[in-house]
């Protein structure tokens, strides 16, 4: 298959979501959690109020202490104790309410993360095959989970905290400037520098973080491919090559992580230095003011305490800018997937076709994946109790025909009908109940054999599961396993042979008793003798059903009522086996090639 995969990160460019639009959507999701929002915002104002009270109390305490030292007054002594207790109370309250608003923010963020994960997963279930086959699945999973975390982190760290910080910095600035303009400006002078440094460092960290994320996703891909192809790796004794490949990708992540450490440490020392310089200036100029009597020692202490208190939220500015930037980028990409319309849509008022007989008709059907015509003017009719065989060289379009019937893709022109009704007018669920495609690549879930067979109908009776496995020649094998039907099938069924996996997936389809059943080269990994047995059993199971057998092996479909020989997406020959042999063209050439040598 020649498909070009789009990296998930490219979605950003296609996203119609602007940053502000993204924030509005995230905020709308957040304000749904009314209780958390209400208590969170109340807690913010209370916590900020107590936090701003602390420097005033410290100033008062220092002032009283200096009075005690100079005057030794008993009454003032009691005030110091009162201030001490008030300080204790203010600090505890500040701690309590800060904890409360952080808790509320975290809770909203976690809920939004949960909501987005579900919405995203649900969307992936609905998006068309054309979408899935055009995008890297590993990328889709890793990056999307990180993006969901990005949005959740934005809510957890920036949502409520932004209100807190603006209130605290704004009110704090007003209070110190009002108290003494010169000293106020000096004590706030570190804010623009620290703000600028933390924002710049955070943005640098963010871009390096994105690169790191990309490298991590490469590491995941290498590991995933290695695990999937472990047999190939071992048989070609390529372990050392694989380790070197992983090591070089892993080193790149180490270098990026080192860069991040450099940015962080340089930044921390610059910020601390600027803060200490401002503090020195406040002490110097403030000290002179105390000496010449324009302010008292308590006021100087208040300025110093305000500086310490404002330092923390200002330092957090960088973190907030990062959370905002990551929130916009992550949210934009996520929403662009969530807003995507599935190509295959169910019409309003679509018909429920559960009771159909299963007369399938292709009327002049053409189809192309990306512009190119893969199928050209295909017409045939398949009735219950009849079998259509489709044969042709690889890439001729056989599987594509199979995928059009349950509407994995829609025909570009012509129409496909069941009992005379266009499948585009049918409810998708009922169509997919009616039609079952047994794929060549038989995927099994990490679950018991029973659950795998009953996947389409978890309420199936045990006897139905047994019958389905008898029909597919798996029963004797299963009951000889230690846990019988409860035996777990390993990741992608590694503990079963290819043929056994194929037989289980056939059992999974026939259990649903679909009216139309399509076997897409589904016995290719089974030896000829087992295939013969399965065919006899299936003849019984598919007796009143419409069946289509796609195979490159003529022995699988020679018995079909009508055989279509496909080449380059067109039906080149059609008819039953005897007729096609008598024509002496492509089908009979294939027969000569495949069957004759074995008979002779
Ligand atoms: P067959 O089953 O006969 O081997 P297919 O129906 O799988 O053939 O493929 C027919 C043609 O369509 C091939 O050229 C193949 O590369 C192309 N094709 C199949 N699936 C896709 C897809 N998802 N996207 C793009 N091209 C595809």
Provide structural commentary.
The chain contains 21 helices and twelve strands. With 600 residues, it is α/β, with parallel strands linked by helices. It has two domains: 322 residues, ABC transporter type 1, transmembrane domain (ABC transporter transmembrane region fold, Up-down Bundle), CATH 1.20.1560; 240 residues, 3-Layer(aba) Sandwich (Rossmann fold). Strand 9, helix 18 and strand 10 form a beta-alpha-beta unit. The longest helix is centred in the first third of the chain and has 53 residues. The structure holds adenosine-5'-diphosphate (ADP). Adenosine-5'-diphosphate binds next to helix 12.
How does the SSE layout of this entry go?
Elements: H1 11-14, H2 19-30, H3 34-71, H4 74-126, H5 129-132, H6 137-179, H7 181-188, H8 190-228, H9 230-235, H10 239-291, H11 297-338, E1 360-367, E2 375-382, E3 387-391, H12 398-404, E4 413-418, E5 421-422, H13 428-434, E6 435-438, E7 447-448, H14 449-453, H15 462-471, H16 475-479, E8 488-489, H17 498-511, E9 516-520, H18 528-541, E10 546-550, E11 562-567, E12 570-575, H19 577-583, H20 586-594, H21 596-599
Parallel strand pairs: 3-10, 3-11, 6-9, 9-10
Antiparallel strand pairs: 1-2, 1-4, 4-5, 7-8, 11-12
Adenosine-5'-diphosphate (ADP) binds at residues 1-3, 133, 369-370, 374, 392, 394-400.
């Amino acid at each position: 298959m020649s498909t070009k995969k789009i990296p998930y990160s490219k979605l950003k460019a296609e996203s119609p979501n602007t940053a502000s639009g993204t924030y509005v959507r995230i905020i709308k999701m957040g304000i749904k959690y009314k209780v958390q929002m209400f208590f969170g915002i109340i807690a913010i104002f209370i916590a900020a109020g107590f936090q701003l009270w602390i420097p005033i109390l410290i100033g008062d305490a220092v002032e009283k202490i200096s009075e005690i030292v100079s005057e030794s007054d008993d009454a003032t002594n009691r005030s110091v104790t009162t201030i001490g207790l008030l300080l204790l109370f203010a600090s505890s309250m500040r701690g309590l309410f800060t904890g409360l608003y952080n808790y509320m923010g975290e809770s909203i963020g976690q809920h939004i993360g949960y909501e987005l994960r579900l919405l995203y997963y649900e969307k992936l279930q609905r998006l068309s095959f054309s979408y899935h086959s055009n995008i890297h699945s590993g990328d889709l999973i890793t990056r999307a989970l990180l993006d969901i975390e990005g949005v959740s982190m934005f809510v957890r760290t920036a949502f409520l905290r932004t209100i807190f910080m603006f209130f605290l910095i704004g009110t704090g600035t007003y209070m110190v400037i009002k108290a003494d303009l010169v000293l106020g400006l000096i004590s706030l002078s570190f804010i623009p520098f620290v703000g600028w440094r933390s924002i710049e460092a955070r943005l640098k960290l963010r871009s390096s973080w994105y690169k790191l994320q990309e490298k991590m996703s490469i590491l995941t891909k290498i590991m995933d491919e290695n695990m999937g192809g472990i047999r190939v790796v071992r048989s070609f004794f390529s372990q050392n090559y694989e380790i070197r490949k992983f090591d070089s990708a892993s080193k790149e992540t180490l270098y990026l992580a080192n860069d991040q450490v450099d940015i962080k440490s340089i930044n921390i020392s610059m910020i601390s230095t600027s803060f200490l310089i401002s503090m020195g200036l406040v002490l110097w100029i403030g000290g002179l003011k105390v000496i010449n009597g324009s302010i008292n020692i308590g006021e100087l202490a208040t300025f110093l305490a305000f500086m310490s208190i404002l330092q923390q939220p200002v330092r957090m500015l960088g973190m907030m800018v990062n959370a905002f930037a990551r929130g916009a980028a992550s949210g934009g990409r996520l929403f662009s997937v969530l807003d995507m319309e599935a190509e295959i849509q169910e019409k309003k008022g679509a018909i429920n076709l559960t009771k159909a007989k299963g007369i399938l008709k292709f009327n002049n059907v053409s189809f192309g994946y990306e512009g190119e015509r893969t199928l050209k003017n295909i017409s045939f009719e398949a009735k219950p109790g009849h079998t259509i065989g489709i044969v042709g060289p690889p890439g001729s379009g056989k599987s594509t025909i199979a995928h059009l019937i349950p509407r994995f893709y829609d025909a570009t022109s012509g129409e496909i009908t069941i009992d005379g009704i266009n499948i585009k007018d049918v409810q998708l669920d009922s169509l997919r109940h009616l039609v079952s495609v047994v794929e060549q690549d038989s995927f099994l879930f990490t679950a018991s054999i029973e659950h795998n067979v009953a996947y389409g109908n978890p309420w199936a009776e045990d006897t139905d599961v047994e019958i389905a496995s008898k029909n597919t020649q798996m029963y004797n094998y299963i009951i000889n396993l230690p846990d019988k039907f409860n035996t777990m099938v390993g990741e992608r069924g590694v503990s079963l042979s290819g043929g056994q996996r194929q037989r289980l997936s056939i059992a999974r389809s026939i259990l649903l008793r679909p009216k139309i059943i399509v076997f897409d080269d589904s016995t290719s990994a089974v030896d000829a003798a087992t295939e013969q047995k399965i065919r006899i059993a299936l003849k019984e199971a598919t007796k009143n059903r419409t069946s289509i057998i796609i195979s490159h092996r003529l022995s699988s479909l020679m018995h079909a009522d009508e055989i279509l020989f496909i080449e380059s997406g067109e039906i080149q020959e059609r008819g039953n086996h005897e007729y096609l042999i008598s024509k002496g063209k492509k089908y009979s050439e294939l027969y000569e090639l495949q069957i004759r040598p074995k008979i002779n």
